[in-house]
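dumping this here before i forget
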Amino acid sequence: MNTLKINNLRLSTYIGCQEWEQKQRQTVLINLTFSDTKEVRQDNPQYYIEYISLTKKIINEFESRHHNLIETLAKQISDFIANNFEYKLKSISITKERVVSWVDSVTFTINHDYVD
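structure:
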């Protein structure tokens, strides 16, 4: 099985429970992994995951919303992909950097198990 990975999609959004986090955008990094059971045979974009359009739609849908937790943001993006695209999302990870001064980052991952 083939996979397509989108690494470090930057989403500037309102995320966090602290008062200052609700007023100031922060950038989270999103990593997406899709399963692709098609054998690579043609050099034709219509047969493959359109990742430019997908990433722009994710940014447009989620950048202006407020999210308390990276866990719920990951679930919302996962549901958005499932409801709007025919792609099989294997996993989504969201990383929030500089959460506190003694931690570089925190990452939450959802893994989907599909039977192909």
